[in-house]
Amino acid sequence: MATQRILDFLATRRPNGPCLVVDLDVVRDNFCAFEKALPDSRIFYAVKANPAPEILRLLASLGSSFDTASVAEIEMALDAGATADRISYGNTIKKERDIARAFDLGIRLFAVDCVEEVEKVARVAPGARVFCRVLTDGEGAEWPLSRKFGCVPTMAVDVLRHAHGLDLEAYGVSFHVGSQQTDLTAWDRALADAGRVFATLAEEGIVLKMVNMGGGFPTRYLKDVPAAQAYGQAIFGALRRHFGNRIPETIVEPGRGMVGNAGVIKSEVVLISKKADNDNVRWVYLDIGKFGGLAETMDEAIRYPIVTGRDHDQMAPCVLAGPTCDSADVLYEKTPYPLPLTLTIGDEVLIEGTGAYTTTYASVAFNGFEPLRSYVI
Amino acid sequence: MATQRILDFLATRRPNGPCLVVDLDVVRDNFCAFEKALPDSRIFYAVKANPAPEILRLLASLGSSFDTASVAEIEMALDAGATADRISYGNTIKKERDIARAFDLGIRLFAVDCVEEVEKVARVAPGARVFCRVLTDGEGAEWPLSRKFGCVPTMAVDVLRHAHGLDLEAYGVSFHVGSQQTDLTAWDRALADAGRVFATLAEEGIVLKMVNMGGGFPTRYLKDVPAAQAYGQAIFGALRRHFGNRIPETIVEPGRGMVGNAGVIKSEVVLISKKADNDNVRWVYLDIGKFGGLAETMDEAIRYPIVTGRDHDQMAPCVLAGPTCDSADVLYEKTPYPLPLTLTIGDEVLIEGTGAYTTTYASVAFNGFEPLRSYVI
């Protein structure tokens, strides 16, 4: 996944310290793959995955829309050339003054998941469109979601009815099946729930128009175009099944799927040691860890591919840890990571699939280490 | 724990958005309490806990020494007025070029926990003092340490012997009993291990001089001076027991104990909602969460006291979450947090005991939210 362009950049520039390099060609390919797999859906890139201006400008120029989590992200998307009608304020947790600011900036599409949030929107963004997030069970996802966002489908009916009553446009339903979701029946179950919300409100004369299917598209399907199309077809089939011949507009919000495989982190082995002479695992310490950008290794949820210059040598399991004086800054310990026995202090390693959810997760200055630098090429 | 000075500052300045306010008077009190409780130990403040320049300057002026994790922290301590002989490079995971840079800056005291690290120090910091970190079991601590730092005591003997052979000064042993350690026998066990390392090397003519007892002193003991003195006496007793009448110099490295209770985070309730009509817990969303500075709520390890203006009203359990679009950004869910039933969107809450491990843990810009602002008064 380290493209030739990334390898050339690293070989030529030889940046000091850990850094992320993102290849825009891969982002472009991903955008096209999404368009091909889901030709009838609008693509709202989840800005939080990687808000680098170069990425936002590329996607804006390709016609992408943008899912944002804060006023700052709205401003970034606008700065990148997106018009306000291509931006949604997708965070269900918003201060009323931030909703007002977004409305001033032209934003008309807001996520909600309760009556209380609807009332904020109604007060400061009159007439805006709202979509209600519905809870899904997240089964089958590599990074399952908690119950933090969304409400049960029966409550979504109340929420959207309340919005309608406050002269907002009850616009649709959203869900998120969990990150890297590979179980297609998860989409089917969520679309069935969405279909029931549509049907219930339609009986009262409230006609919803949109289903926001969120993110969760596994990156690996995208590289394989037939698989991506099969994915799209499965989703289309589920829409047909649950909405009949009144298929609504659909939105998708890829984040990791758009930029995850476009980025590679270059890191350096700082130390290799054992804790006792008879230990059977080595400890390998890198110059990047949980607080330097690899927060998603939390609970060892995401297991990044790691490439070294010695991968043809014999491998043995290691505990992999970051460079800070924090004992929680361990990347992989429960399931040790196989690395070459010849790995040496000072070696460079490439951590692949790190284009999403790394740079902005980095801490400001924990232990005095500077945040992860990023190069978008 | 919100002092009158902090309350006055918040009432007068009314800062917008979440922020940390640290009262330097409390830091001064804590420093004096440590001096009183452990009159024979040198105090090395763990800079990583909170590197605000005002805190470092105060502690430097009070005569504190400094435990640092990186070259950047060394530079901060020097800038604050500490001389190089009052600074240790306490991270066992260091790039060789960073050791060289520290040596250039005058640093002569380095932590190690393996032969490989000793060799780096010997190459670029000739003649420096090294102390070897020994693994402890961390039992009884609220924030137990993994095996990330240190080696078993028998290996520490080899490591220090190796240092001696490379013309470094084999200076001592360090350990860390785990954060907020309340079990005094943990100190006794660790000091027994340290004593055995001293004795074994003394037989070979290598005379260690120092025991670095790390941090882990529970804040609550400090407020109560008799208890702090009892703590000091228990440690002194253990030293006497394991070192006889050749008690070594001792170092302590308080971080949380020095600044934790000096800081209060002001936050705002962004949303209160339920996920279903029949849910028995409310979800309360604050404008600060795991990625905005409260990283230590990871696995609900640290449970901060939260004060609202309605605490005289009836309380009921809540799930408490942060404002980002990340489902992992939940502070307390497994053990819901009791908050007043009358709590309302827009209310201000104070999160106490947040002076340590908050500002620098904050992410750079996750979801577009700015890092935690900090005022030191």
UniProtKB/TrEMBL annotation, chains A, B:
It catalyses: L-ornithine + H(+) = putrescine + CO2. Residues 27-259 form the Orn/DAP/Arg decarboxylase 2 N-terminal domain. Its EC number is 4.1.1.17. One of its GO terms (biological process) is putrescine biosynthetic process from arginine, via ornithine. The modification N6-(pyridoxal phosphate)lysine is found at residue 48. The active site is at 325 (proton donor). It holds the Pfam family Orn_Arg_deC_N. The keyword Zinc does not apply. GO terms for molecular function: ornithine decarboxylase activity. Pathway: Amine and polyamine biosynthesis; putrescine biosynthesis via L-ornithine pathway; putrescine from L-ornithine: step 1/1. The keyword Metal-binding does not apply. Belongs to the Orn/Lys/Arg decarboxylase class-II family. This is ornithine decarboxylase.
